[in-house]
Amino acid sequence: MRKRVGKIIKWTLLGLLAVITVLVIAFWDLVRYGAEQGYGQWHIVWNARPVEEFLTDPQFPDSLKAQLHLIEEVRKYAIDSLGLKDTRNYKTLYDQKGEEVMWVVLACEPFQLKPKEWTFPVVGAVPYKGFFDKAKALALKKELEAEGYDVIIRNPGGWSTLGWFTDPILSKMLNRSEGDLANLIIHEMSHATIFVKDSIEFNENLATFIGDRGTEKFLIDKYGLQGKEYRTYMDEDEDYLKFVDHMLRGALALDSLYSTFQKSDSLAYKRMMKENEIRRIVFNLDTLSLALTSRPSQRYKDRLPNNAYFMNFRQYQAKQDIFGDEWRTRFHGDLKAYIKFLSEKYPFL
What are the transmembrane regions (predicted)? Predict the structure, then answer.
């Protein structure tokens, strides 16, 4: 009897091993990528040091200590006054030594504002792929461009591990203004509170909305409506929103152009029309009435934006009016109540 049970266990284990082996072979690229990402996350988390060590270090600049105190202030405010989840994040600091730590690849169809998506366990389909290795990001960019995609690589100011790790402060965050830093922290904490599978555009737009409104509320509560810090942030934000609105209108113009293309149109013709439209969008940036810059088109003097660039604006900004209307009409501007409603409506993953 024991021998029979032993054989059953043996063959069961061998069967499971065979299944696991087949799955690893079949999904080797995903397994390898997951392992690389896991190591990258672990490396940063492992090498991050407690914030208290920096606060008690006499060699650490007072200006940066003030930023660390601000992050804790914002974190507590987001939990107590906005109702965001306390994940114990931002209790450690990782020294980037002036270097970037993550590169995110975004790709889009050449004549359609349709992003390429990658599918991963838990989070589902996402329109980007992140790396902790710059060379791997550049290699993927080259590969996708060879396939005809429009591609960009961006360096995120921060990211959320959605509660899988305790997210550290990245040292480059400390170079931000008070409003920008508060916005980043609230944005990332929003992801750890509300995150819907297979809905990156919803998730990013919502985190943008909560980050923007939450930062305004934080600065008003701290400094008042006439406070210099609040007014400075709002002036900068007003310029940025004009810029965003222009780019979203540009995306619509590109949609309209691409819809006119016929199968019989040559590739050269489509590329020419696309470039002309993007040049028009960039040129018209200088017609915006901005307080802080007079010629915003100059940022593109060396290289025109592409479809992936415009698509990225949609992923973060296209639904702001939808959230804003619901927040004002149904919740009368009560952000904490709105966040509570959304977190109950959309269970986390």
Answer: 12-31
Instruction: Flag the least confident range among 40-44, 103-107, 151-155, 244-248.
Output: 40-44
pLDDT band per the 50, 70, 90 thresholds, residue 23: very low
DSSP H helices in the chain: 2-26, 28-47, 51-55, 62-80, 134-146, 178-191, 200-223, 228-260, 267-283, 307-317, 320-331, 335-345
How many angstroms separate the CA atoms of 258 and 72, rounded? Answer: 47
Structure tokens, 103:
């590169």
Q: Tokens 């930023």 sit at which residue? A: 67
Per-residue tokens: 34: 């997951």
Q: What is the DSSP letter of 168?
A: P
Contact 281, 323 (CB under 8 A): no
Q: Would you kindly state where each structural domain of the chain is located, as residue ranges?
A: 1-47
Torsions phi, psi of 8, nearest 5?
A: -60, -45
pLDDT at 22 over 90: no
Assess whether pLDDT exceeds 80 at residue 8: no
pLDDT of 247 strictly over 50: yes
pLDDT digits (tens, 9 = 90+) for 89-115: 999 999 999 999 999 999 999 999 999
Those residues whose C-beta lies under 8 Å from the C-beta of residue 152, and which sit 6 or more positions away, are 105, 106, 306, 308, 309, 312
Q: pLDDT value at position 132?
A: 95
Residues 6 or more apart whose Cβ sits within 8 Å of residue 277:
253, 254, 257
| DSSP output for 74-102 | HHHHHHHTT-------SSEEE--TT----
Question: What type of residue sits at position 116?
Answer: K
The single-letter code of the amino acid at 226 is Q
* pLDDT attached to residue 163: 75
CA distances from 49 to 53, 107, 144 (A): 7, 35, 37
Give the pairing of strands 169-170 and 92-94.
parallel
pLDDT at 186 over 50: yes
Q: Would you say 200 and 206 are in contact if contact means Cβ atoms under 8 Å apart?
A: no
How far is residue 315's CA from residue 202's CA, in Å, rounded to a whole number?
A: 8
